């Protein structure tokens, strides 16, 4: 059975999913249907789908493919969405994918840079072009997503008494917010804006004056990564901004507002922001290493007492 084009249009037109989400769900559901065909399951209509097939596919992703829980859960979510479309379309009476639970996984804090890594990155970009410095600091000092940074225009930045504010007109989920810039970022923005004449121009532009693409920023980040000994992406810059705010004493609600974690009613979605107070993988490793030191110390003390 082929994936109906109507399903893709339904996600895009009727549900208003983000284009990236629509493409991801389309890709994952196609892989599910292809797997069913390879396994010899005769699926000619959505009514042929059952919970057992979804369960077997989940187990295949875990055991045979060795995917992480987050990747498996995304696949399950895409299948649930497809089956929900089929149910609304009258092809099935109930959603069989809802009977298969997600894989439960301990939630950890998103990857972020520690103080040493942030300092090393800033030392590196200080010898780079001003545009590169602005690109990095928009993520590191304002928490912007890469999709938001490329859409910032000159007139989205306002300066008031030595302070700068960045207006994000269309953030993730169509959310609007204004983010105060750090003093360092404000200085960079003022220097950078001196070369711009038209206020309606995009802030980040190519050599020919055209709007910089997300892909171009990703290439710049990839070049920086070659010099560093740790992973670095634009989203890690955003995570670092949120993490550093909380570590420096900012309120959870303030971080939620600046990060754009906002509910439909305009209230801060602190449940999303709360993940930044969780432990990072490296902190868990540090805890285990601390335990080993404690064991060695106490085992040595106990051994000496036994000899005595």
Automatic annotation (TrEMBL):
> Does the keyword section mention DNA-binding?
yes
GO molecular-function annotation terms?
DNA binding
A Pfam family name for this chain? Phage_integrase
Give the record's keywords alphabetically: DNA integration, DNA recombination, DNA-binding
Q: Gene3D superfamilies, from UniProt?
A: 1.10.150.130, Intergrase catalytic core
Q: Which residues form the Core-binding (CB) domain?
A: 1-87
Instruction: Give the InterPro entries listed for this entry.
Output: CB, DNA_brk_join_enz, Integrase-like_cat_sf, Integrase_catalytic, Integrase_recombinase_N, Integrase_SAM-like_N, Tyrosine_recombinase_XerCD
Residue ranges of the Tyr recombinase domain?
108-289
User: What's an example Gene Ontology biological process for this entry?
Assistant: DNA recombination
Q: What does this protein do?
A: Site-specific tyrosine recombinase, which acts by catalyzing the cutting and rejoining of the recombining DNA molecules.
The family classification in the record reads: Belongs to the 'phage' integrase family.
Q: What is this protein called?
A: Site-specific recombinase XerD
Q: Which organism is it from?
A: Candidatus Desulfosporosinus infrequens
